[in-house]
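Possible regression after last week's pipeline update?

I re-ran a chain I had predicted before the update to compare outputs. Posting the input and the new output here so someone can diff against the archived version. Not blocking, just want to make sure nothing changed silently.
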Amino acid sequence: MPVEHMVWIKFNPSVDEEQINEHLANLGTLPERVPAITALRLGENFTNRAVGYQYGLIVTFKSRQALTKYLSHPEHLAVANPLKHDAEVMVMDFEY
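New output (post-update):
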């Protein structure tokens, strides 16, 4: 079954626009660097319904096994770990 990996991102107030853009650019390159990804969508929130979360990321995988490979992939960790330092991140994974 396909899996969606949803990530909500709220940058710390000390993170400037240049740093935010670098994080977003790095996230956008993940499909080129991690073969398990079948699709990636990234965008800025435009509503007041996300309790302060500024960006959303949805990554699609063919299976739970592919998600598991992604989560431990060195290229994912190289992007995710610095992001977690500069932002609050909330994640949900589901099959459909």
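Follow-up from reviewer: compared with the archived run. Residues 24 and 44 are 10 Å apart (CA to CA). Marking as no regression found.
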